[in-house]
Amino acid sequence: METPISLHPWLDNGFAKGDPGFSGGTLVCACTDRPVKVRISGGIAHNHACGCTKCWKPADATFSIVAVTPHENVSVIENGDKLEIVDPTALIRRHRCRECGVHMYGPVEREHAFQGLDFIHPERFQERGWPEPTFAAFVSSIIEAGVDPSRMNSVRNHLRQLGLEPYDCLSPDLMDFIAAWTAKKSGVLTQ
Amino acid sequence: METPISLHPWLDNGFAKGDPGFSGGTLVCACTDRPVKVRISGGIAHNHACGCTKCWKPADATFSIVAVTPHENVSVIENGDKLEIVDPTALIRRHRCRECGVHMYGPVEREHAFQGLDFIHPERFQERGWPEPTFAAFVSSIIEAGVDPSRMNSVRNHLRQLGLEPYDCLSPDLMDFIAAWTAKKSGVLTQ
């Protein structure tokens, strides 16, 4: 029997629900010396597992865990001099620690349905209680990172067992949200 | 009670399975005078309902019905002088009848997982028996054509009732196929 593919150390064996009262905390990078710290002064939303090749994830994880929070909730509080932007042309301007590589926050500044939101990785909170992930996005993209296509049934089944419905783009709610934004921008929808 | 949204006249009230022996036929545009005719000399695959805003669909339909066939199976046999390319820069080079607007075939010529395939609309076959659609793609995109986001639950439920699992991109099989093509091209997958 083949070794199961690790989705993510936080996910593989199930996970507890978050604390409904979670209202932010401090994200810390992986450096032991002068870690970057980013304060999130409010709740996070749309936490999910993501299979895209751009999101930061721990070594050996196949999926990242990623959520959003309004940009005004995000402030760098320590060692921000270690931050660099991964790809200034990307929609999500991911800011990573140049020493340990952990992505600390990624604002969407461009005109887009997600403008004004920052993407963050809740597993970097030093606090517990952040809302648990509720779906899996960009699942087919893990093949682009080297997962053999023959393993996809088992990966999707594992995600479903964990309550993380797998999608190859975002969830229907978010895809509808993006489409509605596009329709309002084009004038097709007016409300 | 709101009037249900018509998915497509061929779909709304259920549909029969195709003939497993279907091996092609003739696509005919909607003109009564000098209709364009395109011969498909072989089977078709991946037939599905598509909610994207680019695919041709009959008036009042919300989804198109679209499938693929290898390009070498496609030949224009009558009135090809009426064909024009909708958008020469698009991945799918859709050829439509400039009089009635029906899209007759759309080859993918660019380097892509679908290169060598032509997209066609099986409902334009003058013959019956073409394989029935088996899923629905780009469902959220119907909002971009003006469907109110509040109707999406009912649209997705209707598609599921018809056996057409709704996806907001392509089906998992096709998304995996595209990802595997990308992974081979980048060298991440070698087999």
UniProtKB/TrEMBL annotation, chains A, B:
SUPFAM superfamilies per UniProt: Mss4-like (SSF51316)
Reaction catalysis annotation: S-(hydroxymethyl)glutathione = glutathione + formaldehyde
Pathway(s) of this molecule: One-carbon metabolism; formaldehyde degradation; formate from formaldehyde (glutathione route): step 1/3
One Pfam family hit: GFA
InterPro entries per record: CENP-V/GFA, Formald_GSH, Mss4-like_sf
Annotated positions binding Zn(2+) 2: 50, 52, 55
Alphabetized GO MF terms: S-(hydroxymethyl)glutathione synthase activity; zinc ion binding
Cofactor-binding details, from the entry: Binds 2 Zn(2+) ions per subunit.
Limits of the CENP-V/GFA domain: 22-168
Cofactor(s) listed: Zn(2+)
Any GO BP annotation: formaldehyde catabolic process
Key words of the record: Lyase, Metal-binding, Zinc
Residues binding Zn(2+) 1: 29, 31, 97, 100
Entry EC number(s): 4.4.1.22
Domain of life: Bacteria
Protein's job: Catalyzes the condensation of formaldehyde and glutathione to S-hydroxymethylglutathione.
PANTHER family on file: CENP-V_GFA DOMAIN-CONTAINING PROTEIN-RELATED, GFA DOMAIN-CONTAINING PROTEIN
Protein family according to the UniProt entry: Belongs to the Gfa family.
Protein's name in the database: Glutathione-dependent formaldehyde-activating enzyme
Gene that specifies this protein: gfa
